[in-house]
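Example record

The entry below shows one chain as it appears in the dataset: sequence first, then structure tokens.
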Amino acid sequence: MTFELFAALAAFAFVSSITPGPNNMMLMASGANFGFRRTIPHMLGVGIGFVVMVLLVGGGLLGLFEAWPISYTILKAVSIAYLLYLAWRIANAGAPEGSGASARPMTFFEAALFQWVNPKAWTMALTAIAVYAPSQSFASIALVAVIFGVVNIPSVGSWTVLGTQLRRFLTNPARLRAFNITMALLLVASLYPVVFA
């Protein structure tokens, strides 16, 4: 891979990781509701889960969509349904110290699995492999995965930090409720490109 292609891949990884999307909206909401430390497993699940996704997409899943286009439509429908459910959960989240047993941040495993129903993650992985690893050689796929791994964690971490900074402002239950509803609506709005693509 030439330096120019490497730089373009790093820029693509940064821009696609730092821009708003389902992961970043949920991490900001988690940071605001649960704090940075309790959101670390969620952040790591996003970062590592996406790296695994890139490796598997490059290793052959891209061909599945080409062979069976209906599989992409099914994935899209499941993704939309799950994101609407998550938006509902965010909108109805409790106070930051959540006294209820159900008040908890997403776990590492849940966040890693979420990548498989996250439309933005699919778009990022498919584009990265198609554009930056068209030969689908192990070395090129691994390089794409490593670059995303290095760029993704600090990018998603910045959204968690933003959420934790907002936490001080959200000590009032009415403001917290308004924030959670806003985050839920933004999560739903992130589906626009998927639904109308």
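Notes for this example: The mean pLDDT is 86. The radius of gyration is 17 Å.
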